[in-house]
Amino acid sequence: METIFWILSAITVIGAILSITLRNLVHCVLSLILFFLGIAGHYFLLRADFLGAVQILIYIGAVAVLILFAIMLTRHVTGDEGPREVLGGKWWAGMGTAVIIAGLLWAIIRKDQLTQVMPPGAASMPDGKLVAELGRALVTDWVVPFEAMAVLLTAALIGAVVIALEEVIRKR
Amino acid sequence: MQHSDYLQHLAQQQWLIPLFPLVAAAIQSLLKRPARKLSATLTIGAMGLSCVFALRAFFATIGGPGGEHHEVERAIFDFTWFKFGNTSLDMGFILDPLTAGMAAMVAFVGFWIFVNATGYMAEDDNFTRFFCFMSLFAASMLGLVISNNLLTFFMCWELVGLCSYLLIGFWYFKPSAAAAMKKAFITTRIGDIGFFLGILMLYWKTGTLNLYTHDPFHPGALEQAGNLATLAGWWSLSAAGTIALLLFFGAMGKSAQFPLHVWLPDAMEGPTPVSALIHAATMVAAGVFMVGRMFPLFTAGAPPGGSTPVLNFVMWVGCITAVFSATIAVAQFDIKRVLAYSTCSQLGFMVMALGAGSLVAGQFHLLTHAFFKALLFLGSGCVIVGTHHEQDMRKMGGLKKYMPITFWCYLVGMLALSGVPPFAGFFSKDEVLLETFHRSKAAWGLATFAAFLTAFYMTRQMFMVFAGKWRGGGGHHGHGHHGGEPHEVPWNMWLPIAVLSVFAIGLGFFAHSYGRYLGAEGGEAAEGKALVMGSSIAVGALGILLGWVIYGRKTMVHATDKDPLAAMPAGLFTLLNRKWYIDELYDVTIIRFTAACGVFFRLFDKLVVDGVLHAIAWATWGISQVVRWVGDEFFINGGFDTGCESLRLGGRTLAKLQSGRVQNYFRVLSLGAAILLLIYFFT
Amino acid sequence: MSIPLSHYLMLSAFLFAIGLCGALSRKNAIIVLMGIEIMFNAGILNFIAFWHYKYFAALTAQMFAIFAISIAAAESAIGLALVIAVYRHYKSVDVDEMKSLKG
After folding, report:
1. Given this model, what pLDDT does residue A33 score?
2. How many Å lie between the alpha carbon of B432 and the closest alpha carbon of chain A?
3. What is the pLDDT of residues A44-71, one digit of tens each?
């Protein structure tokens, strides 16, 4: 188990790092897919099977493909960027902030003694009915957020179409 | 059915009153622009229906077994809106004489304003949008009147503000209208901060936002007023006094009390029916009504027949506003602007009456004023339409011949506003003055002076507009298809003012019964009554007489003639005409303030925000960045110089914070997150 | 299996920082969005880790994760549509050049 954790962690971290450092945008997306896969593996390892499936379906199936489409639609930036153009202005400040936040999170995790928390025993493992429970909860206790999410996704869908179409309409 | 049960039944149906205009607004928001007939029918029909319901509630509250004991009957209906944890938010409706009278007035006056508006807006392209906003305006005001809960009250209060914003700027393509709408919104928002703080403090001290609950175990906020008066608040006031003071700030903004009155005259930029609605039934009435609604808080802790510091403050604010705006109204030339300042002044009277401790006088003046001010504004709308969109009184004159119906109705409104005996304004103003007389002789004297000025400037306006010869027409080069002689307005414009003028004549006779209706003490305060009434009649007559002497004997002949008053010494007329330079004062101070803020924020940006970013750079990049830091040091100094220079550029400097770069915002955001983490780590 | 909770949290903190770094320092808008996606995923991983280690019986964490994923999907759809619209307008997806909101 521990070995799997380390392997998965290595995959995720390498995928994440590559996806924000590579020059070629398509390569970036490919390593992002690697990262998503690693995260999905972590979900399976943590016994959140449904979420792992959702992760693969939504992130790899939808989001990554969407990003690929966006890259293709903004085509002439697909090729290699020159070395000086990759980073934005004040990039060092951004990196510094990221490092500081990582360090602080690290310190907080240590300080709050979360290192002591061990996984629960096998007795309390779920019995495979988790997905059914989730489904039932979604349409009973959680039905209002669920519906709100449906509205949000519809609005986002329409909004994305409108934003992307705007220029075309104006030309007519 | 028992009478109280009947009232309870009606209280449950109070929500129907604002519902009709609200639905009408919702439907109209979907209508296409050419659907004028449908739009007008919907608006007026909905308003008529809610008027019927409001009147039914009103007559039900009258018909109670009042008789000898002046117990106010109050029916309420509360229900839970939603719950979270152990706290729940309630909504509720109330039906008591205060609400019923107010709702009936708003619905009734609003109805006739809408009828008039169909004529006034007949040629406007955005007819449906206009009536959509108007319906929403009326709905939110009615919702405010019937709510028994400060939360819904506040929501409707803000909706009223929003609608006035939308309607004042209805012709948003005019820069002045766009400026006026912003001014109205922002100025009232300043007061609303106080209102909101008051609500928060009330919730904090009483644990409820319901006004009345009729439940001894969970008393409503107003039922705890006596209790609050014993708790300590801020600035050596009692808790009730502090809350009342904060709430009153909201009323100052909404009801245009000095020094937050500046928005009201500019609100003239909207179409005239909007002005009528704002000045009579909705926006400005909301503030006075709120003070009336929360009156137990204002009077809490006052000795019998005595006053509290807050009440005194309220009275003096009202008194100053009354005199101050009356002086300004004397020197205005825009027909609507004169009326606007007179509204300010009359609102001052109402607030003063409330401050003098008399709910009845304040509310009654609010009601009568609503009728005759709506009449005057609609009348001025008729004049504006009749003279082909001319608003300058110097270019009018002689309209009596051309617009007889408008003239007679306007005359009624003018006499009512001036406080001439048989008209409504006389009785209500007299009551106000009497109550003030009992509280403070100085305030009474000032208010009487304001009443004199009122009679004077209204006479001035009458003579300038209706007497003499038609002075317009000459200057109409720009719009050829307009121009020409003034004409009488169509029936849908004069009918409303005719109806309203009936009320402006007759309503005054109900002064006494209204007092009993609101549950006032029956004792006739005879002391000083003769003096007050006599002086009130005298100053009214004097004002009209003086107006006749100055403007009536020799009417203006040319539009360019100088105002006879301009001969007043030492630029007094200019001072009044420029409204005591209050706007200019605010401009100067606000520019200075914004400039100071601008410099501060620029320095903050350069020194702190950038400084922190640079410090991070240090941490990551070490000493090699020293040179860069020096360079930025230079840049900081440069920024400082620019900052000083931009003192005169005012708020533009503030905008420099907005670099427009999304990553800049994001960086600052994550920096904030880092700081929060740091705080979490060390605590 | 003796991985303490803190391993997951530290992993997720690390991923979060990587995503933040990408979002803050790259100038291609699409990569910025990808960085934000990475941050989202790091956050969701926290939910699931806590769920696994502490509140196994409750469904709240799973629900939150599902809703967060939906929101992330909506966000990326809108974000990429914006990128395309911006590209049409500026012929570039460089975030440094998108500064017409400058005050």
Report:
1. 93
2. 54
3. 888 888 889 999 999 988 899 888 888 8
pLDDT digit string, tens, across residues B78-126 = 877 776 666 777 788 888 888 888 888 888 888 888 888 888 887 777 8
Long-range CB contacts (within 8 A, 24+) of C87-95:
C87/A73, C87/A74, C88/A167, C89/A167, C92/A77, C93/A74, C93/A77, C93/C28, C93/C29, C93/C30, C94/A88, C94/C27, C94/C28, C94/C29, C95/A88, C95/B661, C95/B662, C95/B663, C95/C27, C95/C28, C95/C29, C95/C32
CB contact under 8 A, B658 and C23: no
Q: B576 to chain C, minimum CA–CA distance in Å?
A: 38
Residue among B94, B70, B25 nearest B520 (CA): B70
Interface confidence (ipTM) of the complex:
0.91
pLDDT tens for B173-182 read: 888 888 888 8
Which amino acid does the sequence have at C57?
A: A
Task: Kindly determine whether residue A25 and residue C30, on different chains, have CB atoms separated by under 8 Å.
Answer: yes
Tokens of B140: 């939110």
- B659 near C CB under 8 A: yes
Token match 């922002």: residue?
A: B186
Mean pLDDT within B595-615: 63
Write out the residues of chain A at the interface with chain B, using a CB-CB cutoff of 8 A.
Answer: 88-90, 92-101, 104-105, 107-108, 111
Instruction: Answer yes or no: do B667 and A98 touch at CB < 8 A.
Output: no
Q: pLDDT (tens digit, 9 = 90+) per residue, A95-117?
A: 888 888 888 888 888 877 776 77
Residue of chain B whose Cα is closest to the Cα of C28: B663
Residue C90 tokens, joined: 């500026």
Q: Are B670 and C95 within 8 A, CB to CB?
A: no
Chains that touch A (3 or more CB pairs under 8 A): B, C
